[in-house]
Amino acid sequence: MAAQSKLISYFTSERSIKDAIGRLASWYVGRRTTISRVMYVVFAAAVANRVRNTINTQKAAARKRAEKEAEEAATGGTTRTDAGKTGKKKVELNREFFRNLWKLLKIVIPGIRSKEMRLLVSHSFFLVLRTLISLYVADLDGKMVSALVRGKGKAFLLCVVWWMGVAVPATFTNSMLSYHQSKLALQYRTRLTQHIHDQYLSKMTFYALGNLDDRIKNADQLITVDVSRFSNSLSELYSNLAKPTLDMIIYNYQLSRNVGGEALFAMSLLVNLSANLMRALTPPFGRYVADEARLEGEFRFGHSRLIDYSEEVAMFHGHENEKLGVDKSYFALIKHVNYILRRRLYHGIMEDFVIKYFWGALGLLLCSVPVFFKIPGVNALSLGDRTESFVTNRRLLLASSDAFGRIMFSYKEITELAGYTSRVSTLLDVMKDVQKGNFEKALVTSAKENSALLSSRGTVSEGTSIEFTDVPIISPNGDVLIEKLTFHVRPDEHLLIVGPNGCGKSSLFRILGGLWPVYGGTVVKPPKEEIFYIPQRPYLSKGTLRQQIIYPHSQSEQIRRGVTDDDLYEILKIVEIESLVDREGGWEAEKEWKEVLSGGLQQRVAMARLFYHSPKYAILDECTSSQDLDTERIMYETAKHLNITLITVSHRKSLWKYHTNILQFDGQGSFIFAKLDAEKRLALEEFVARSEHNLLNLYS
Asked: Are 247 and 127 in contact (CB under 8 A)?
């Protein structure tokens, strides 16, 4: 037993440990070249294997996605009738993410001579400069501590002077980095917003997204919020990846010279293994961000819908029901946010332990190598030199580990960027798709029987008249209102359209205005600038009183047409509202005109707008419902005097005399198009009324 205790004491003695380490070091120095080559070969093989696995994973994901798309195409899973069944996109760092990101990068950085590229180059210059300053500061820090340990006051004071001197370029560089990052975010947002506005506000895309397609429910949030977040995330990501990557390369190179490449390699191997473990345990924050943005949009959409239908909700006293809806969407959002916070809590604990403490311990071991072991090619160091070496290496190591930590933390930022990229690219893809006439919308049950009709398209051409030949009237949800509609409106042949609600009158105008697709037949119509539409509730834009009359023209367009304010005043005289100019403060007065003007005045402003534009055709949808007969007469006689062909929707018998043809819908899918004899029709109406009165008297 005593012999065993002596043996244990011998092997655990300090001298034995030092002897063992010394023999191990001697053995390593003698075989250093071979060991280094083996380590580099293993490292290269590991990198190659990692790349191969990544490529295989991407190929497998692409193959799986292609098989799924083929299956959906075979079963009609993504057709118009099953639009509501289409699943959400999975947000992850895959080939689709990089393809979408590259597409957005080409928008926000249009060329090498663009302002964004110049900002990137300038930003990169300051990133390099900041790293070089950090290297100098690390070396200066070591010299300062060495001078302090050796008791060299003059050298120490000189280091302090240099320390204060380097603060000037260092602080300037840091401020320039922040400035460039903010400028890049602003430029990215400007480019992307302008591009989206060009697409969104062209070819009636804004209308199609909200009325003909169900894929984008909250375009306003995507354009205003998600584009801003994407731009900020993209600008931050460049700084958070470029500088740490550069720091790691330069700092690790300097460390390899100070402590030996093998020790650095061994530490890097341990760090890489722990990093892989962290990556495997990292939650899918990109998907979480995309879901959060979607829930934010649904919550915002609920309030927007409440504002749009506030009158109807108030009339039905449906505020409690609406409160349940908005509360439900809010608590769904909060539940998801709390879930993200919990996942970030657990992930943050793991990250802090690994990055700050585990990697920190490895760093201390690495910095101690030159102190306890002789590095081949490095002379023996004195106490002051070893202190300087330790402080410098420690400073470099802290900077390198901080850079690696920022790269690891940036993985979350990349996944969040993937979420924003997915939402913004989805908006662009859907806008491009609807501009081609491809829509995905939930359809009524009966629409499935008309799938062939919904997938077809009619022909639309320009002409001097309006002609519909065998054109089906179909609503966006697939409800067939009229199977084949045929009628014509030629110049000076004024048309009156009558029929019950929901029979297809407004749908006809939407097809005529190019808002709804033509699913069959032939449509001939004049250019859009020759057709003007006045609804029952006129749209009053945000702007001056003048802009209400000339909308959608601008003042420059008014001047180009040679129309003066005096001409506009004469137009207001026709509809007897010229007093508005003085009463509201002149042509440049800006107000919320929908609140300032009554319903009748709004309709008269719309009449003045019609006379200003003087189109060849005018669609009047109950636009005189709030007017007396004299005002109605003035409007129709003035329009005819201006050679405007009228297409009117109204049930007012006083309007019959202003029209030559009638298009009557019965609400059951049938219609009659014929000449309108106002006197004969009025006589027939009076005869029917008398007959009904006599029948009532007979049975009373």
From this structure: no
- HEC letters along 38-84: HHHHHHHHHHHHHHHHHHHHHHHHHHHHHHHHHHHHHHCCCCHHHHH
Say how far apart CA 75 and CA 57 lie, in whole Å.
27
If asked whether residues 463 and 417 sit together in one domain, one would say no
Q: Is 491 found in the same domain as 368?
A: no
487 and 428 part of one domain: no
Please state the pTM of the whole predicted model. Answer: 0.65
Last residue of a domain, one of 435, 468, 489: 435
423 lies in the same domain as 463:
no
φ, ψ of residue 344 to 5 degrees: the values are: -70, -30
Map tokens 């609600």 to a residue. 501
* Secondary structure of residue 671 in the 3-state scheme: strand
Same-domain pairing of 423 and 476: no
CA 64 vs. chain centroid, Å, equals 27
Percent share of the chain, pLDDT over 90? 7
Is residue 321 in some structural domain?
yes
Which one-letter amino acid corresponds to residue 563?
Answer: V
Q: Are residues 335 and 481 in the same domain?
A: no
pLDDT tens-place string over residues 76-111? 433 344 444 444 455 566 778 888 888 998 998 888
- Write out the residue range of the structural domain in which residue 378 sits: 97-435
Structure tokens at 321: 């029901």
SS3 517: coil
Model confidence pLDDT, tens digit, residues 181-192? 888 889 999 999
State the first-to-last Cα distance of the chain, in angstroms, to the nearest integer: 130
User: CA quadruple 316, 321, 327, 328: dihedral positive or negative?
Assistant: negative
Tell me the DSSP string of 245-276: HHHHHHHHHHHHHHH-HHHHHHHHHHHHHHHH
